[in-house]
Fold this protein.
Amino acid sequence: MILIGGTSYAGEMKKSVFTIMNYLLPSKRVMSMHCSANVGANGESAIFFGLSGTGKTTLSADASRTLIGDDEHGWSENGIFNIEGGCYAKVIRLSREAEPEIFSTTERFGTVLENVVMDEGTRELDLDDATHAENTRAAYPIDYIPNASATGRAGHPKNVIMLTADAFGVLPPIARLTPSQAMYHFLSGFTAKVAGTEKGLGKEPQPTFSTCFGAPFMPRHPSEYGNLLRALIAEHQSDCWLVNTGWTGGAFGTGSRMPIAATRALLNAALNGTLANVEMRIDPNFKFRVPVAVPGVDAAILNPRDTWADKAAYDAQARKLVGMFRDNFKKFEAHVGADVLQAAPQLAEAAE
């Protein structure tokens, strides 16, 4: 029995069902995932883990790929499948130019708009108006996205992407993870909560660690999900990436949000195999591999320290974030192997 009270967020209903699935599926060796998913013309699928506001819906709605679903999926011995039937996109400050596929759904008959401001006279929508709530939504059938899958299924993912919105401005826009690093970051679930899906959040993002990128919906011990994901990644040799859709050039308030165009270009390079052939550097704090240059992307954005005017301020933020990661992971140390413990970030000066 699930009781929902005092909410202005209809998504509580689907998240309740998702919580049930997260309890039932792992016992059948099916990984339940808070992620979006799409598949390329070559049949290679990708999954995008992330909390609300990190880009799951935006980045999976790609005109060059077929959308499987935007929020909740399972991964079984037969591949991935959509748990839901439609999409439930955040539409606050949505623009026709940056997100044309999702924007078009707000003009379609049958789309249900939630907390969206509408002019009572002209019936025109103002998607920039957060009068009712920052968490404005559009619920629509998945086939409103032009290239949506008719089956809601695809093969085993070639790429596993973990999305984070780093409000510290420390993490690079994309990094390649080893399987051990992937499990570390999956269990950590670092991001910044942005105003919207939780009441009481102010205008400033709040850094948080939400294990499995969906802690409120995971009734089993996090290690069960982590071990299952790691086994599936190893079995199907999936490539793993950490993508920062948060801040660059400084922390929140000083820097700016990562450009969607740059994120899309880097993701496309990962999905089409381009990043397999570019020079990589080892991040001094997090030890994952980061591209030095990617065709079509401003190289300056790839090294976050270089985007800060005050390098000492960046180093201080990096020390703070590394400490937060290590403190948060203490609760998992007894449940993971030595290789995952070694995947923990370490301050550059400590390593030296």
Observations:
- The CA atoms of residues 333 and 341 lie 7 Å apart.
